[in-house]
UniProtKB/TrEMBL annotation:
<dbReference type="GO" id="GO:0016491">
    <property type="term" value="F:oxidoreductase activity"/>
</dbReference>
<feature type="transmembrane region" description="Helical">
    <location>
        <begin position="77"/>
        <end position="95"/>
    </location>
</feature>
<feature type="transmembrane region" description="Helical">
    <location>
        <begin position="46"/>
        <end position="65"/>
    </location>
</feature>
<protein>
    <recommendedName>
        <fullName>Oxidoreductase</fullName>
    </recommendedName>
</protein>
<dbReference type="Pfam" id="PF00106">
    <property type="entry name" value="adh_short"/>
</dbReference>
<keyword id="KW-0812">Transmembrane</keyword>
<keyword id="KW-0560">Oxidoreductase</keyword>
<dbReference type="InterPro" id="IPR002347">
    <property type="entry name" value="SDR_fam"/>
</dbReference>
<dbReference type="InterPro" id="IPR036291">
    <property type="entry name" value="NAD(P)-bd_dom_sf"/>
</dbReference>
<keyword id="KW-0472">Membrane</keyword>
<dbReference type="GO" id="GO:0016020">
    <property type="term" value="C:membrane"/>
</dbReference>
<keyword id="KW-1133">Transmembrane helix</keyword>
<dbReference type="InterPro" id="IPR020904">
    <property type="entry name" value="Sc_DH/Rdtase_CS"/>
</dbReference>
<comment type="similarity">
    <text>Belongs to the short-chain dehydrogenases/reductases (SDR) family.</text>
</comment>
């Protein structure tokens, strides 16, 4: 189903949970795209679509699942974000912005439901060697294999981690981004734009 139809997606999820209680729900929806080389600003339609698929739909579905898990006083939710959420990527504003929204939502949801026996884990991966990942232009440092990412997600959930950033150098980059003065950070981010 197309999760852009959020009411239908939430209804299908609730129907599934009513048929058989879900103990662990993993929301891994995402579209990645960058601004076209000929555009100075991302297309408004692209911004809207990425906002729905990368943030609004998984957040709404996670909220619906969390409400049911809170009633049962148990369960675990995993939201797949992105390391791009930590950086203001001028050539991928919709992608980095939508994943940043999911990051903040995940943190808030985790705090809101933890006293009710429900855990929330946010996963922020870097580049993953998938068909979609290989289509992203430019360098892809520290690319991970899907099997490795799946194993790390399973470990994070088993340990009850609130946030798993992978691979670990991306966690260091996140801190580095926060410590840089804004003018230096802006120059660095602008230099990352793929050639066009």
């Amino acid at each position: 189903m197309d999760i852009a139809d959020i009411p239908a997606a939430v209804a299908a999820l609730i129907e599934e949970d009513e048929a058989r209680s879900v103990d662990l729900a993993l929301f891994a929806s995402g579209l990645g795209d960058i601004r076209a080389a000929t555009d100075k600003v991302e297309d408004p339609g692209l911004v809207a679509r990425l906002s729905v698929i990368n943030f609004a739909a998984p957040a709404a579905m996670a909220a619906a699942m969390a409400a049911r898990m809170v009633d049962r006083k148990s369960g675990r939710i995993v939201l797949i974000g992105s390391a791009a959420a930590f950086h203001a990527l001028p050539f991928a504003a919709a992608y980095s912005g939508s994943k940043a929204g999911l990051t903040r939502f995940s943190e808030a949801l985790r705090l809101g439901v933890r006293e009710h026996g429900v855990g929330v884990t946010l996963v922020s991966p870097g580049f993953i060697d998938t068909a979609a990942g290989r289509q992203v232009p430019g360098p892809k440092p520290l690319m991970l294999q899907p099997e490795e990412v799946a194993a790390r997600i399973a470990q994070a959930v088993e340990r009850g981690k609130a946030h798993a950033v992978m691979p670990w150098p991306f966690a260091v980059l996140r801190l580095f981004d926060r410590l840089l003065p804004r003018p230096m950070r802006d120059r660095l981010l602008l230099s990352l734009a793929p050639p066009g």
